[in-house]
Amino acid sequence: MDFGLTGKRALVLGASRGLGHAVAATLNAEGAHVTIAGRNPVALEKAAGAMAHPDKVCVLRIELGQPQSVADAIEELGERGSTAIDILVNNGGGPPPGSVLDVEAEQWLHHFSAMVASTFTLTNHLVPAMRARRWGRIVNIVSSGVVQPIPNLGISNALRASIVGYAKTLAAEVAGDGVTVNSVLPGRIETDRLKQLDAAAAERTGQDAETVMKTSHAQIPAGRYGRPQEFASMVAFLASDLAGYVTGSSIRVDGGMIRSV
Ligand SMILES: NC(=O)c1ccc[n+]([C@@H]2O[C@H](COP(=O)([O-])OP(=O)(O)OC[C@H]3O[C@@H](n4cnc5c(N)ncnc54)[C@H](OP(=O)(O)O)[C@@H]3O)[C@@H](O)[C@H]2O)c1
Fold it and tell me: 213-247: per-residue pLDDT in tens?
């Protein structure tokens, strides 16, 4: 199947490892030129070297929690010709676990800035050129928590919901110009982030990590965690030419974990 990605230009945030890296590698393997972004330049260079077509990879340093860094990255993209970006994959680090009751006002603002405002700012910057070219793809990596809030992940549950609201609104505004906007909801996919959450759960409950993982597997109809590639394939499809009529959707990649229809 030809995804029609040859020659397309993608910007993938949070792409030095985990889900973002798997997405960037898949787009690159399908022929897209990818700019991979994150905080750590060494990790980004290493990630770039692991792609199928390293000659079609650029790195971009960005700290999503710092508005100045986001502004600098936008300026750098402009110098490189940011109007050429066809595909934007919004992604970044997850917030710490905990109850919503324990979050102070300043922490809400900090995480809003890192997870939400940066997404809105970058998307608003890149969409006008996509509309002008009458082709564009925005894919937001969020979480199953936007449908079924996850216990003890209060910040994530509360803030990611606003990305889905933004995406649905934007999708209707730009659908007539060939730009699609979708959100993908990972359930539990094997990455560093999942290991950290399982380790935190083990510490909180006094169980060992193996027991936490087995309990978690038992809650997933597929009986296991997902692989990053299984997640990336869905994002690559949404980013492709084939998915031109899919927009404003929230799509689960969760092995059946969310039980509601
Ligand atoms: N894996 C899952 O099962 C799952 C489930 C639900 C939701 N999610 C969410 O999906 C997203 C990706 O998950 P993942 O498992 O791939 O996470 P991950 O393994 O922690 O990777 C996060 C990526 O984002 C980058 N990053 C982190 N903080 C950043 C910041 N402030 N500015 C710029 N880049 C930043 C990291 O690179 P640097 O550290 O080098 O910057 C890394 O490339 C996370 O938000 C996670 O919470 C994941």
Answer: 999 999 999 999 999 999 999 999 999 999 999 99
If you write DSSP's letter for every residue of 6-72 in order, what string do you get?
TT-EEEESS-SSHHHHHHHHHHHHTT-EEEEEES-HHHHHHHHHTSS-GGGEEEEE--TT-HHHHHH
Contacts of 73 (CB under 8 A, 6+ apart): 37, 60, 61, 62, 122
Ligand 1 centroid to residue 80 C-alpha, Å: 25
List the domain boundaries for the chain: 9-189+227-253, 190-225
Q: How far apart are CA 96 and CA 201, in angstroms?
A: 12
Element (H, E) at 141: strand 136-141
pTM assigned to the model: 0.98
Angle between helices 154-174 and 118-133 in degrees, nearest 10 = 20
Quick check: 84 and 9 in contact, CB under 8 A?
yes
Report whether residue 193 contacts ligand 1, using a CB cutoff of 6 Å. yes
Pocket of ligand 1, candidates 112, 121, 193: which has the most ligand atoms within 8 Å of its Cβ, to mutate? 193
* Six token digits for residue 88: 């934007």
pLDDT one-digit tens code per residue, 76-92: 999 988 779 999 999 99
16 in contact with ligand 1, CB cutoff 6 A: yes
Q: Which amino acid is at 258?
A: I
Q: Pick one of 3.40.50.720, 3.40.190.10, 3.40.50.1820, 1.10.3720.10 as the CATH number of 9-189+227-253.
A: 3.40.50.720
